[in-house]
Amino acid sequence: MRRFLLVCVVFLGVILSCTDRDDNVDSVNIRIKNQTDFNFNEVRIVEKDTVYENISAGGLSEYYEFLSAAEEMGLTIVTDSTTLTYTPNPLAIDSLPIGFYTYELGIDEENQVEFNFRIDY
């Protein structure tokens, strides 16, 4: 009987400790990926007045939660040497469904922001 009770407790503990990051998701979660060779001091999502700070070259930020968010949103990127802005296509106005997403940001040879949207699974 003890052995059965011990097995039940262990099994219950394993089941309760196994959670996935999307088990209790109730919002749009967005992170920033820095695809440049220099650090981003600040990335500001203009429409949401949200600031991601200190994203290293090639690094990822933490996910920030939003009640609603578009596939593309206006951004301001601040580095040590410059400030860049990204204005999205005006057609990208629909809100994303609940889930996890990444805005991949790069800068081309003409100092224009390259914006790539990715769905994280």
UniProtKB/TrEMBL annotation:
It comes from Maribacter cobaltidurans. It comes from the Bacteria. This is Uncharacterized protein.
